[in-house]
């Protein structure tokens, strides 16, 4: 299992199989993502696509009616549109009723088009593509009043950019503190696997993307005001992994929502992509029981592989 450490302990479960792995089930990342995208494919030289996505941003609710009897009935936690988070109800802000939101996974050279619809009646919004340099598309960077006008309630804006920055990135809201309420998701640009990368790992699978974020039991704005104008702190209540976690009060477990589970086959080497979508003052220490980690890239840049016992990750970093 993986341990992440800030103020809370989060456990990620690994399922080890002797035979072939990859059967999709209710615990898989693909299942949470509702459906795969045609651009989520093995990258082949010369195969360039236009990749279209539709994001609908709205206010929502953790453990909403869509969750039925979750977590008392664990199977209900995997129902469509159910966002269990850490088992504590609160208002949240989501894209397509998912947290994390849809994974944008494309190949180098693809054209990416993301149509963002603002379904909130009380806030404007925008999306920033964290790690993408936007060299030829500066007005797609998603910074309100700097590179674009914010997206008004019940309006739509289309982001168009080329996939020109290889590596592990992510997208997130860049208006107010909306990112802290759930508006974030992976952005991954892959290249065709060559002889050099095949020496490092055997598999680079979508379901092995790990998105961590610090989570509070009030909205991001309430947390911010409590910290600035009263006696509150800026520490999270829980660390979520792919939108899932359990709430502990000191050492006492108070909720029993499902955890993220990753399936691997014994004897194979897997590339895991780690995205830290945190917002608070909370560096996260990550280690895997009984294993070392071979780090090969950071923030979209490859480096000489180095074997480590753990990684310390800060908000916005990718590994």
Rg from Cα: 19 Å
Compressed to H and E, one letter per element, the order equals EEHEEEEEEEEHEHEEEEEEEEE
Distance between the termini: 18 Å
Helix content: under 10%
Enumerate the spans where pLDDT stays under 50 for 5 or more consecutive residues: 7-11, 20-33
Side-by-side strand order of the widest sheet:
15-2-1-17-20
Tally of individual domains:
1
Shape: globular
Mean pLDDT over the full residue set: 89
Q: Treating each run of at least 4 consecutive H or I residues as one helix, how many helices? A: 3
Query: What name is given to the CATH topology?
Result: Immunoglobulin-like
The percent range for strand residues is 35-45%
Largest sheet: 5 strands, mixed
Category by helix and strand content = mainly beta
CATH level-four homologous superfamily name: Cupredoxins -  blue copper proteins
> How many strands in all?
20
CATH architecture: Sandwich
**Regarding CATH, which class?**
Mainly Beta
Quick tags:
mainly beta, 6% helix, 35% strand, Cupredoxin, Plastocyanin-like domain-containing protein, metal-binding, oxidoreductase activity
Secondary structure: elements and pairs:
Blueprint: E1 2-5, E2 9-17, H1 29-32, E3 50-61, E4 91-95, E5 104-107, E6 111-118, E7 127-130, E8 156-162, E9 167-173, E10 184-190, H2 195-198, E11 209-215, H3 220-229, E12 238-241, E13 248-249, E14 252-253, E15 261-265, E16 273-276, E17 284-288, E18 293-298, E19 301-308, E20 311-313
Parallel strand pairs: 2-15, 3-6, 5-10, 11-16
Antiparallel strand pairs: 1-2, 1-17, 3-4, 6-8, 7-9, 9-10, 11-12, 13-14, 17-20, 18-19
């Amino acid at each position: 299992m993986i341990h992440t450490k800030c103020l809370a302990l989060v456990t990620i479960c690994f399922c080890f199989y002797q035979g072939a792995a990859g059967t999709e089930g209710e615990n898989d990342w693909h299942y949470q993502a509702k459906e795969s995208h045609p651009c989520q494919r093995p990258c082949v030289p010369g195969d360039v696509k236009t990749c279209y996505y539709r994001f609908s941003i709205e206010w929502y609710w953790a453990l909403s009616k869509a969750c039925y009897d979750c977590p008392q009935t664990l199977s209900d936690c995997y129902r469509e549109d159910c966002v269990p988070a850490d088992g504590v109800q609160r208002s949240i802000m989501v894209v397509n009723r998912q947290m994390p939101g849809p994974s944008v996974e494309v190949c180098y050279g693809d054209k990416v088009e993301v149509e963002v619809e603002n379904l909130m009646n009380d806030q404007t919004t925008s999306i920033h593509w964290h790690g993408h340099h936007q060299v030829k598309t500066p007005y797609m960077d998603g910074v309100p009043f700097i590179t674009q006008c914010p997206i008004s309630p019940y309006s739509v804006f289309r982001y168009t950019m080329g996939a020109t920055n290889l590596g592990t990135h992510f997208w997130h809201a860049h208006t107010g503190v909306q990112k802290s309420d759930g508006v974030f998701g992976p952005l991954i640009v892959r290249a065709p696997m060559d002889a050099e990368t095949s020496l490092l790992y055997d598999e680079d699978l979508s379901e092995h993307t790990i998105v961590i974020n610090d989570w509070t039991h009030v909205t991001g704005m309430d947390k911010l005001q409590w910290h600035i104008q009263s006696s509150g702190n800026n520490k999270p209540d829980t660390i979520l992994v792919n939108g899932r976690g359990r709430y502990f009060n000191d050492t006492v477990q108070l909720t029993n929502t499902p955890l993220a589970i990753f399936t691997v086959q014994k004897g194979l080497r897997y590339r895991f992509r780690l995205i830290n979508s945190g917002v608070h003052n909370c560096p996260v220490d990550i280690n895997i029981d009984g294993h070392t980690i071979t780090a090969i890239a950071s923030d979209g840049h490859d480096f000489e592989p180095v074997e480590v016992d753990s990684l310390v990750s800060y908000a916005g970093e990718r590994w």
